[in-house]
Amino acid sequence: MKKPFAKLLPGILLVVALIGTAGAEDKKDKSDSSGKAGAKGEGGDGGSDAKVFEEPALSVTTHTIKVNGQTLKYHATAGYILLKEEEGKPLVKGGGGGKGSSDSKSDNEPSKTKDGLKPKAKVFFVAYTLDGERDLSGRPVTFAFNGGPGSSSVWLHMASVAPRRALLSDEGEAPPPPYQLTDNESTWLDKTDLVFIDPVSTGYSRPVGKEDASQFHGLKEDIASVGDFIRLYISRNSRWLSPKLLLGESYGTTRAAGLSDYLQNRYGLYLNGIILVSTALNFQSIVFAPQNLEPYVQFLPTYAASAWYHKKLPDDMQAKSLLEVVTAARTLAGGEYATALRRGDQLPSADKVRLAGELSRYTGLPAADILRWKLRIRDSLFFTHLLHTEGKVVGRFDARFSGLRYEPGTDGGDQDQEYDPSDEAVTGPLGATFNDYIRRELQFESDIPYELVADVQPWNFGEGGVGYPNTSEDLRKAMTRNPYLKVWVTCSYYDLATPFFGAESVVATMNLEPAIRANLQFSYYESGHMLYIHKPSRVKFKADFEAFLNDALHQQTVHSAAR
Description:
By secondary structure, the chain is an alpha/beta fold.
């Protein structure tokens, strides 16, 4: 889900990104593409003798599900949308992320589509569309994706809001294999159509012909390609007048924030709502690097919540509620702790000793170790030291999970030499159920592997001289220009990949005007990075979404004309 981020930037493993699924409402597509995609699902190049690049056929299937006593009839569409370029109009202007396309094509390789455009990449999606909706202007459509970068949308797709999901325990634990699929009682399909997107190189999405995949591997490049997919989807399926939302997770929130500004500027496409799950808008808050003090501050409240969950705090702290613990930890982190870190080696020794003792009370870690680390507790140290005496490592994506260490008798070590038990808890069930589901129920076939997490390194984050990757400014601009754009930030207390205090701090420093700030809301869950694997949180997530959607769809006109 998120391993690529660890390789990408030191100290970070961003969780899997967002979800992709799209509904093919177009009658033409339904009649042409029902049944199995067959060989076209694999290649789609139209054969070696073809001079025109043919877009692969879609697979459209019909289904039903019962939600809150109501039977919903819907169709699922699985397949590709082909990204294309006009001559002289590249998808990414000045992106500079990759080597670009290859001009060396064989004589038999198709170089143009039937409309005279240059094929660039096949983006795989799965869409769920409710049947019987005649007026699409009242039916929302939500585009979902995970993060990475390099993650497919399998996490959101097979565990969160789609009509079907992998069967996990109520806490989000994997059962013994083989795994099972089940209807999702918390699907959002009764309220919105859903389109799960796999960005280029993830899932089944691939560049076409000899196009270089690296031209899609970058902050701007990724936003442009996903933005073009969204434009094509809503155009082909007559959804320009439908309410439109984005659902992004982890690096998917980075993408969603960037898309909010890009879609408005590039296509005049204005969104109704954005849902940011496990937020990563400004990497300065999550990347542990020399001279960057932000992560030490932002992670402390989540350390406290995690230590409280595992009953590692002193008795007086352990007796408090979770909310009381994190509230006190916020005060310590943003106040005395932040001030002490800024003073560095100028902090008096007596103050260092006292603060190490205070940090120990909130983290469950020995004060002597915290002093040795110069009051700086890296996430990797917390993962391996909280349960060190038990020979266990704590989950990064979800600190509720723990697992046996590879070498439990050794020193605490570092997460780089361990694994994430919360990742292992879901990867098997989600991967297995998707590969069965896409073939058996959605009737899409391909012999290429579905890349749950693809290697997309090096990822182009843009100009290094301007600091850490940050799309919060894109979101601020989009919200300022579009006063109807509602933004919902979900935070999980046990998420040690994208901590909730970091999300709060980044939003606060966006300095939104009060009227615009009122369009942004937070909600909190006693879960981890993938909040929805925890059944009570998944149920709450659905209820919170219904309230958010109602708010986004029922707004008064904002009068801006001079009088």
